[in-house]
Amino acid sequence: MKIALINENSQGAKNAMICNSLKKVVEPMGHTVYNYGMYTAEDECQLTYVQIGILAAVLLNAKAADYVITGCGTGEGAMLACNTFPGVICGHVEDALDAYTFAQINDGNAIAIPFAKGFGWGGDLNLEYIFEKLFAEESGQGYPRERAVPEQRNKKILDQVKTVTYRPLTDILKELDQELVKGALSGEKFQEYFFANCQDEKIAAVVKEILGL
Q1: Are strands 90-92 and 110-114 parallel, antiparallel or unpaired?
Q2: What's the pLDDT tens digit per position in 99-129?
């Protein structure tokens, strides 16, 4: 699995610690982490939580990433921004129980973590516990297991609803403020990681147009 890590400007200083915790847990499982930054609070590319949603949607819809780990101060803004876009089901996760139940019941492809609210001593351990439970088993198996059938049915219904209520991402990207989108896609490692992993030519073409490539 290709796992993308994205931090916004208020939490950029924590990126290295979050990335290390994520890699420590998921790399032994065979997953690959792509750190899209922000890498420091002083990065030239300053991502807002709205731009996190744009970037996450581009990565997931283009299949450049299979899962997105993100967040902000409370996690709320990042979650709302991610869920604004098609192809993204983002849960708000504060602890390992949130992570496990979201993975097993809701079978999403992104989580938003509060990296400031309640994030104190032992915060790095809490992250490791979250990542362990998030990726401990194949997602979507249901919890408790006897509820698997109705939960899986509801997830399929949600997926069907989202195909009706959202427009194609390529149309959305073209109609958004282009400087806003360009800023979301201007991270130091974006082009290197994205174009090496992108599996959707239409999205790739729109991204190149926006970036002037």
Answers
A1: parallel
A2: 999 999 999 999 999 999 999 999 999 999 9
Residue 33 contacts residue 23 (beta carbons within 8 Å) = yes
Q: How confident is the model at residue 175 (pLDDT cuts 50, 70, 90)?
A: very high
Please, are residues 152 and 140 in contact by the beta-carbon 8 Å criterion? yes
Find out whether 75 and 93 touch, Cβ atoms under 8 Å. yes
Residues 6+ apart with CB under 8 A from 177: none
Q: Would you say 36 and 187 are in contact if contact means Cβ atoms under 8 Å apart?
A: yes
pTM for the model stands at 0.96
With residue 3 as reference, give the H or E element that holds it. Answer: strand 2-5
SS3 content of the chain, % helix, strand, coil (to 5): 55, 10, 35
Q: 3-state class of 201 per DSSP? A: helix
Q: Return d(Cα 21, Cα 15) in angstroms, integer.
A: 10
Q: Is 81 buried (19+), middle (13-18) or exposed (0-12) by CB count in 10 A?
A: buried
First to last CA, the chain: 28
Considering only CA atoms, which of 112, 81, 83 is closest in space to residue 98?
112
20: its two tokens: 């290390």
